[in-house]
TrEMBL record:
Domain Lon proteolytic stretches: 228-345
Protein name: endopeptidase La
Keyword Protease tagged: yes
Reactions catalysed, as given in the entry: Hydrolysis of proteins in presence of ATP
Matching PANTHER family: ATP DEPENDENT LON PROTEASE FAMILY MEMBER
C-alpha cells in the first residue's frame, strides 16, 4: 500500500511539473513595467536637474505552459497569443530576437535623429551595411550567413545603400559566386555564396535572405542609450522626449511622472503599437501621472480586415476608464503634440 501511495505521489508531482514547465507553441503577454529613462539615456553635458521623469512602458511576454494557459483564461491582465501572432511565418526564436532588437535599434535611431533636429543640434547619418534578418531553409546562404550578420561589401566593393546591394545581386551572371564582406560579432569576415533559386519563389536566383539597412548616427553632443533586454519599436516617442529634455535648458516634465508609448518615425509622426492596454495597466501601477498614446489613423483597409479595430488612444482611454485610474491619457499624432502639451502644462506644486 505504501509503495502504491509513493508511486501515486511521484506521478502527481511529475504531472504538476509538466503542467508548470512544459512549453506550448503559444505565448502569454501581461503588463510589464515603467522604466525611468534617466539612467538609460546619456547626453554628454546635458541638462540633468529636472524634477520629474520620463518613462518607457513595456509588456512582458513568455512562453505558455499548460498551467499558465489555464490561469490566463480567467485573468483580464493576461492575453493568450498564438505563435503566429508573435513570430512571423517560419521565423525561429533567434530570428524573432534579431527582429525585436532591430526594431529597438531603429526606434533609438529615429528618436535621436528627430530630437537633435528639433533641438537644432548637429547630427550625421552613416550607412553601415545590410543586416541579415532571416536566412531561408535550403537557400543559397543557408549555413553560410546568420541572422545578425552585417554585409558591408559585395565583390570587394563597399556598399552604400540597401538598394545598391539588391541591384548588384540582381546583376550577377547566372552561376556566379557572390563574394561577401560581413561583420559578425565585431569581426570582419569574408564568405562566398553561389546564388540559387530562392525557396518558395518563382525560380529567381538570390541569397535567400531578408535584410534591412543598418545605419549609425553621430551627434554633437554625443548621446548613448542603454536598453539592456528591451526590444521592439514602441519606446521611440519617450526616447525622443527624454533626449530633448536633456538637450534643452528647460524641464519638460514640469515635475510630473510622464510615460507613454509609440513608434517614432523619422518625420516626427508617432506610429501605432501593440499591447497598449497592458501598458496603461503597468503605467497606473507604477504611478505614472501623464501617459502619451498614439492617436493613429485607421484606414478603410484596416477596418475591412478588422471591423472592431480602434486607435491606440481609444483603446488606452477605454482601459484607463475600466481600471479607474486618475492618470491623464493624452492623444498624440506627432512628437510636436507631446511637446506642446508639456510646454503648456503648469509646474507641479
Amino acid at each position: 500500500m505504501k509503495k502504491k501511495k509513493g508511486t501515486a505521489a511521484i506521478a502527481a508531482v511529475l504531472l504538476v511539473a509538466v503542467a508548470a514547465l512544459m512549453p506550448l507553441d503559444m505565448y502569454i503577454s501581461k503588463p510589464g513595467g515603467a522604466y525611468d529613462l534617466t539612467p538609460l539615456v546619456e547626453v554628454q553635458g546635458g541638462d540633468e536637474d529636472d524634477q520629474g521623469t520620463m518613462s518607457l512602458m513595456t509588456i512582458a511576454l513568455s512562453k505558455a505552459t499548460p498551467l499558465t494557459y489555464v490561469f490566463s483564461n480567467f485573468m483580464d491582465s493576461r492575453k493568450i497569443m498564438k505563435a503566429g501572432q508573435v513570430r512571423q511565418d517560419g521565423e525561429t526564436e533567434d530570428e524573432y530576437d534579431i527582429r525585436q532588437e532591430k526594431l529597438m535599434d531603429d526606434s533609438q535611431f529615429n528618436a535621436i535623429y528627430v530630437a537633435y533636429q528639433k533641438a537644432m543640434k548637429p547630427v550625421e547619418v552613416n550607412f553601415e551595411g545590410v543586416l541579415v534578418m532571416r536566412v531561408l531553409d535550403g537557400a543559397a546562404a543557408s549555413g553560410v550567413l546568420k541572422p545578425g550578420d552585417i554585409i558591408t561589401e559585395l565583390d570587394n566593393s563597399r556598399l552604400h545603400s540597401a538598394e545598391e546591394f539588391s541591384d548588384a545581386l540582381a546583376g550577377l551572371p547566372d552561376g556566379q559566386e557572390a563574394k561577401l564582406g560581413i561583420r559578425r560579432g565585431g569581426k570582419q569576415l569574408e564568405e562566398r555564396v553561389r546564388l540559387a533559386p530562392i525557396p518558395g519563389g518563382d525560380g529567381r536566383l538570390g541569397l535567400g535572405i531578408s535584410f534591412a539597412e543598418e545605419r549609425s548616427i553621430e551627434t554633437e553632443p554625443p548621446v548613448k542609450i542603454h536598453t539592456e533586454d528591451i526590444g521592439g519599436p514602441s519606446a521611440g516617442l519617450m526616447f525622443t522626449l527624454e533626449i530633448m529634455d536633456r538637450l534643452l535648458d528647460e524641464d519638460l516634465t514640469k515635475g510630473y511622472k510622464v510615460g507613454g508609448t509609440g513608434e517614432m518615425n523619422e518625420d516626427g509622426t508617432v506610429g501605432r503599437i501593440g499591447g497598449i492596454d497592458f501598458k496603461i495597466m503597468a503605467a497606473d501601477r507604477d504611478g505614472i501621472e501623464i501617459f502619451f498614446a498614439p492617436d493613429d489613423e485607421i484606414t478603410d483597409a484596416m477596418r475591412k480586415f478588422n471591423p472592431d479595430i480602434r486607435t491606440n488612444y481609444e483603446e488606452a482611454s477605454e482601459t484607463a476608464k475600466k481600471i479607474g485610474t486618475d492618470m491623464k491619457v493624452v492623444p498624440v499624432k506627432t512628437v510636436d503634440d507631446a511637446l506642446e502639451y508639456l510646454r503648456e502644462l503648469k509646474q507641479k506644486p
